[in-house]
Design goal:
With 456 residues, this protein is α+β, with helices and mostly antiparallel strands. The chain contains nine helices and 20 strands. The longest helix has 41 residues. It is elongated, with a radius of gyration of 48 Å.
Length: 456
């Protein structure tokens, strides 16, 4: 049915209705809902689903974008955090030691490591049951001639049956002990390199060292860390320390020195050898632990002795008095409170030629006051064979002087006398001490002997 009135009232809207049965009343016409007034349930569900999908897409996109950004940032960080230098690395070159050009530590090492050696010595002794006991020691040394002369410490090779030396390149030679001096703790070895010319060090002058000068040591600490270099400064020059009851004039240094460094070279900043590393204090006299106290024998003190050993197998310039002396002045016999009591004088020796007699008490040698035997021992490093000195002595309560010319220990009489043993003393070298025959000890130092039963 078409209803014009409804069309007019509804702004030209058309409504249709079908009546298959005209007898039935017409159904009530439902008004058309305004837009937005009614939302079907299926449409709301679709919108919710769409919202969820959009949220999921947004979360996924954000997650993916996050990974993308993170990956890009990480990659960017890795690229910028690793900086590669474009600087050309300097070539490691070996320079010549000329004594006038200061060298860097690297240059000192490269110029001298081929001249340094590792030393291994072995000896055989017998225990109480006469069973052989093998002992070994290790140390350092340095080459001083192309044909194989090597300098080291005496205590490293003392009493050894065999000695071998190893160069930086691993070459090993059997070494012969040419000779040594226990007092100065120096020894000379000889190897046969055949047609190979070894590289020697350049010997410098220790007298030019001053406190604060830079120094380096090359050696084999612990006998395992071969050809290691340590650096430091000169802490003191002409430092007198007591080693085995014997005063030593030493160079005190701060470079790290450990067991196995003994015998190695001490270099100045010019690459010259100015000392022989010899001792280290690890504890003080009071038992306190200490660090940074290393010592080296000044090269000026032993340079002529090294040549003497090379030529004669021993130090022939050691001064010799030719007396047998007590430790002190024996005041109960002499009435003198300080000095050295002369028990006997060797016939034809320097003391007899100077007019000294048994019973005299030596109180001064040169300008040095003599209080006991240790003072005489210390003078063995002040004088050498052939030097002439004024001896001041007391005889029968009267003070007198005489001129004495030192002889050489090589001319000393070998007549045996009664002996005694020197007690061991704190050496500052980790227990290394002298415990040999006292007459031999005195003859090594000053050509004097010590009578039995009179040790202080």
């Amino acid at each position: 049915m078409y209803n014009d009135n409804e069309r007019n009232n509804n702004n030209s809207e058309y409504h249709y209705s079908y009546r298959p049965n005209y007898d039935e009343p017409l159904p009530e016409v439902q008004p058309v809902p305004e837009p937005g007034e009614h939302k079907p349930r299926h449409s709301r569900a679709k919108r919710i689903t769409a919202a969820i999908l959009c949220g999921a897409l947004l979360v996924g996109a954000s997650f993916g974008a996050g990974w993308f950004v993170k990956d890009r940032l990480l990659n960017q960080k890795d690229e910028t955090s690793i900086m590669v230098s474009q600087r050309e690395l300097p070539e490691v070159t070996t320079v010549n030691v000329d004594g006038s050009t200061p060298l860097s530590y690297t240059e000192i090492y490269n110029a001298n490591v081929d001249s340094c050696v590792s030393i291994n010595a072995s000896s055989t002794s017998y225990n109480f049951f006469m069973q052989p006991v093998e002992t070994a020691s290790s140390g350092s040394g340095f080459i001083i001639t192309e044909d194989g002369y090597i300098v080291t410490n005496y205590h490293i090779i003392s009493g050894s049956n065999s000695v071998s030396v190893t160069l930086d390149d691993g070459t090993t030679y059997e070494a012969k002990v040419v000779g040594g001096d226990e007092d100065y703790d120096i020894a000379v070895l000889k190897v046969d390199p055949g047609d190979t010319k070894l590289k020697p060090v350049v010997l410098g002058t220790s007298g030019s060292l001053q406190v604060g000068d830079e120094i380096v040591a090359i050696g084999n600490p612990l006998g395992e860390l071969t050809f290691s270099m340590s650096e430091g400064i000169v802490s003191c020059v002409n430092r007198e320390i007591n080693v085995d009851g014997t005063p030593f004039n030493m160079i005190q240094i701060t470079a790290a020195i450990n067991e196995g460094n003994s015998g190695g070279p001490l270099f100045n900043i010019y690459g010259e050898v100015v000392g022989i590393v010899s001792a280290k204090y690890s504890t003080s006299s009071s038992g306190n632990s200490v660090e940074g106290l290393g010592f080296a024998i000044p090269m000026d003190d032993v340079k002529s002795m090294i040549v003497d050993i090379m030529e004669n197998g021993q130090v022939t310039t050691r001064p010799y008095l030719g007396i047998s002396a007590w430790y002190d002045s024996q005041p109960q016999l002499s009435g003198v409170s300080a000095g050295v009591y002369v028990e006997s004088v060797e016939a034809g020796g320097p003391a007899e030629k100077a007019g000294l007699q048994a019973g005299d008490v030596i109180t001064m040698i040169g300008s040095s006051i003599i209080s006991n035997r240790d003072d005489i021992n210390s003078l063995s490093k002040t004088y050498k064979a052939g030097d002439t000195v004024t001896i001041t002595y007391v005889r029968d309560g009267q003070v007198a002087t005489t001129e004495l010319t030192f002889g050489s220990t090589t001319d000393a009489s070998t007549t045996s006398t009664e002996t005694t043993t020197q007690p061991e003393t704190d050496s500052g070298r980790g227990g290394y001490s002298y415990g040999g025959d006292m007459d031999e000890f005195f003859e090594q130092f000053f050509g004097t002997s010590y009578s039995s039963g009179k040790a202080a």
